[in-house]
Amino acid sequence: MAVQLTNPIANLIQMPFHHNFDLGGGHSGDAARYTMNFQPVIPVRLNSDWNLISRTIIPFTSWSGVFPHTERGVSDIAQSFFFSPAGSSPSGTVWGAGPILLLPTGTNDVFSRGQWAAGPTGVALQMKGAWTYGVLANHLWSVSAAPTGLQRVNASFFQPFLTYTLPTQTTVFVTSEATHDWNARQWTVPINVGLNQLVSIGGQMVQFGGLVRYYAEKPAGGPTWGFQFRMVLIFPVP
Fold first, then answer.
1. Would the pTM count as exceeding 0.85?
2. How far apart are the C-alpha atoms of 17 and 230, rounded to whole Å?
3. Chain mean pLDDT for the chain
């Protein structure tokens, strides 16, 4: 199962909680950002040939050292749908594609783009024994008017990943979660290195993990480094 979990669109119900801490930001380098992403993944069998995988990202964010006081709230929700072949490929190739939506659910202007956005998303990966490598990508454009003072959304996201799973159900990985803001012509490129461990607690499969990240490219005032703790509850598909 640990190998299956290296597939972002695996045929498993997953309830991940990602606790992200980003540090070294702001003009004086003392700003900090905490983001808890709840990222449920729910696959649905459409027929004998196709699955539909729903991936949702619900961010709860706190910023300190940027404003006169700490800001906390919910950010915009990203909802992706991947249509993926149900059968496994003999070569180990897995792919899925579909739409992504950005919902303006942020609680204030600090955490929200204030507009709807949509675009394509896709993932392609190769699974060979203990190794998994691939990339997940999407692009978002505004589909509604931007609030006064905010730019329309025009952004790309790239997540290349390489993982290796040990017989102990331990997975080591290196990945990035790079974004490109086409309006500002600005890249943000964190390099992440970490590991995950799959365990059973009272019959419930749970994966614990963590990573450290370094921002190889960032906008002015962006964080310099960070780390993450994660917990994923895993359930079989009925």
1. yes
2. 6
3. 93
